[in-house]
């Protein structure tokens, strides 16, 4: 990332610290559960869910399952939301939907329907960066970093092997 118009808001160490804190919060709110499902929105949400799962497994006895949620973020009604692997049941379980940035809440709102017909025990939301511009009735249960931005600004989270950071553009 070398765009002159961007500003780094989180570096790798800060993201790792925020993921660790979020994992402790998830465990604290769900310590009585035997199982927990982390459902990450493809692609960065799924990577973040995997990072959270690693932390949760190191601090708790909860059996953590990972789901990847695949949907068209631009036109979510054109292609059905897909949950992978399909073999994971969420019936009666706590589901934590995970995405890198919560902006309008549109992606999470459209995803929620795919969970409700499976009758989960409860659904929570974890996000690394919460921009507080929600247009849908979606609120993060767990937030790594709250950020006041203008509508014109864009938050980009990079979760790659060679770079882990968050930028405001």
What features would you highlight for this structure?
169 residues; alpha/beta; Rossmann fold; six-stranded mixed sheet; three-stranded antiparallel sheet; 3 helices
Structure, explained:
It is built from three helices and nine strands. The protein has 169 residues and is α/β, with parallel strands linked by helices. It has a single domain, classed as Rossmann fold (3-Layer(aba) Sandwich). The protein is globular, with a radius of gyration of 15 Å. The mean pLDDT is 93.
Number of domains: 1
| Unreliable stretches covering 5 or more consecutive residues | none
- What portion of residues belong to β-strands? 25-35%
Count of helical regions:
3
| Fraction of residues in H or I helices | 25-40%
Largest sheet: 6 strands, mixed
Query: CATH first level: which class?
Result: Alpha Beta
Physical arrangement of strands within the biggest beta sheet: 4-3-2-5-6-7
Q: Note the run of SSEs as H and E.
A: EHEHEEEHEEEE
Class per helix and strand makeup:
alpha/beta
Q: Please state the CA-atom Rg, rounded to the nearest Å.
A: 15 Å
Distance between the termini: 11 Å
**Structural shape:** globular
CATH architecture: 3-Layer(aba) Sandwich
């Amino acid at each position: 990332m070398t765009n002159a118009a961007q500003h780094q808001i989180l570096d790798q160490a800060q993201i790792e610290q925020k993921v660790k804190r979020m994992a402790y919060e998830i465990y604290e709110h769900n310590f009585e559960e035997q199982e927990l499902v982390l459902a990450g929105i493809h692609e960065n949400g799924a990577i973040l869910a995997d990072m959270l799962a690693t932390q949760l497994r190191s601090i708790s006895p909860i059996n953590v399952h990972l789901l990847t949620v695949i949907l068209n973020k631009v036109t979510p009604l054109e292609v059905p939301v897909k949950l992978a692997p399909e073999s994971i049941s969420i019936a009666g379980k706590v589901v934590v939907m995970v995405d890198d940035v919560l902006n309008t809440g549109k992606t999470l709102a459209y995803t929620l329907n795919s969970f409700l017909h499976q009758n989960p025990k409860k659904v929570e939301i974890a996000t690394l960066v919460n921009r507080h511009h929600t247009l849908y009735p979606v609120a993060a249960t767990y937030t790594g970093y709250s950020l006041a931005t203008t509508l014109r600004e864009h938050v980009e989270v990079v979760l790659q092997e060679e770079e882990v950071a968050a930028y405001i553009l």
